[in-house]
Amino acid sequence: MLVLGLETSCDETGVALYDSERGLLADALFSQIDLHRVYGGVVPELASRDHVKRMLPLIRQVLDEAGKQASDIDALAYTAGPGLVGALLVGASCAQALAFAWGVPAIGVHHMEGHLLAPMLEEQPPAFPFVALLVSGGHTQLVRVDGIGQYQLLGESLDDAAGEAFDKTAKLMGLNYPGGPEIAKLAEQGTPGRFVFPRPMTDRPELDFSFSGLKTFALNTWQQCRDSGDDLDQARRDIALAFQQAVVETLTIKCKRALKQSGLNSLVIAGGVSANKALREHLERMLGEMKGKVFYARPRFCTDNGAMIAYAGCQRLLAGQHEDLAIKVQARWPMESLPAI
Ligand code: KG4
Ligand code: ZN
């Protein structure tokens, strides 16, 4: 089955062609980061308009790259939520219109299920069951995964998502959007031990997270550095390192706890923050000690992309699921409500 996947939930237009027999044939991405950077974050209306502009040229591009024609496509998969409603509607209407015109089925995919399954596109995919840490700009969740659509939420962020905390901390120090990669880069030159940030909620047995306090801690530290006339370039690096260490250690502690409680030793990390090298290294060390394994996607499939949507949609289509012709998207959509396949 050849599936064309469209991702438009936020500020990336992603398009990919996935073949259930041959794997990923082509994928293309247009990132709107430069468009939103001047505003310090995503402007929803600009995002929607840009998706409209990019979608059809990207579809043509992946078809050309894969040497395929519209008539070869068996089905469409699009992100139906969660995300920005206007942006989601662009992908959903485009997918439903093409599906109608080509006489093929379409399926709406849950964005976080897309992220969760992205490591399945790698050479050594994880086997069910496993614990998944989903860390993106909008979500921080620990989930027990027994199969596609068999999700048990173990814990989640009570306030800011991990990626959001990276973005806000970067912004308050005058760094560019998105802040995750900026902080990760600066942290490499930070002075270990100059600042120590708290590890929020690690003294409690439950698996929920809270990251908003770290941003406040970073703000206070940044202001102290400014007031005392410190070298601000070095202060940025040192705060970046202390902040990243706090997030990474907090996530690692909770992952270890979730694995122990579930009796599993296989961990999947997915979403934009799973591209973070320090997080990968920490989790690899921890899973090594547990004689387990950590799985993640190549960096460009950690952040938003069309390949994960084409893959997730394909699995559900193969199981006989698809939508009617209505164009439905959801800004909020709990992943546990998805049907099992
Ligand atoms: O999954 P994603 O592309 O979009 C959402 O679904 O939200 O995640 C974007 C988030 C942003 O907050 C970005 O700062 C963060 O992922 N991110 C990172 C890194 N790369 C992206 N955070 C930490 N380290 C990175 N290397
Ligand atoms: Zn995402």
Q: How many structural domains in the coordinates?
A: 2
Secondary-structure element series: EEEHHEHEHEEEHHHHEHEH
Helix segment count?
10
Give the CA-CA distance, first to last residue.
17 Å
- Unreliable segments of 5+ consecutive residues: none
Description:
Its cofactor is Fe(2+). The chain is an alpha/beta fold and 341 residues long. It folds into 2 domains: 2-117 and 301-337, ATPase, nucleotide binding domain (Nucleotidyltransferase, domain 5), CATH 3.30.420; 129-296, ATPase, nucleotide binding domain (Nucleotidyltransferase, domain 5, 2-Layer Sandwich), CATH 3.30.420.40. Helix content is 43%, strand content 19%. The chain is built from 10 helices and 10 strands. It has helices spanning 33-37, 44-66, 85-102, 111-117, 162-172, 179-187, 212-227, 232-262, 277-289, 306-318; strands spanning 2-7, 12-19, 23-31, 75-81, 106-110, 130-135, 140-147, 150-156, 266-270, 293-295. The protein has a 5-stranded mixed sheet, sandwiched between helices. Helix 5 crosses helix 6 (179-187). The longest helix has 31 residues, at 232-262. The radius of gyration is 20 Å and the shape is globular. Residues 111, 115, 136, 271, 304 line the site of zinc ion.
List the helices and strands and how they pair.
Blueprint: E1 2-7, E2 12-19, E3 23-31, H1 33-37, H2 44-66, E4 75-81, H3 85-102, E5 106-110, H4 111-117, E6 130-135, E7 140-147, E8 150-156, H5 162-172, H6 179-187, H7 212-227, H8 232-262, E9 266-270, H9 277-289, E10 293-295, H10 306-318
Parallel strand pairs: 1-4, 4-5, 6-9, 9-10
Antiparallel strand pairs: 1-2, 2-3, 6-7, 7-8
Helix pairs in contact: 2-3, 4-10, 5-6, 5-7, 5-8, 6-8, 7-8, 8-9
The protein binds 5'-O-[(R)-(carboxyoxy)(hydroxy)phosphoryl]adenosine and zinc ion (ZN).
Main location: cytoplasm
Keywords: Acyltransferase, Cytoplasm, Iron, Metal-binding, Transferase, tRNA processing
Catalytic activity: L-threonylcarbamoyladenylate + adenosine(37) in tRNA = N(6)-L-threonylcarbamoyladenosine(37) in tRNA + AMP + H(+)
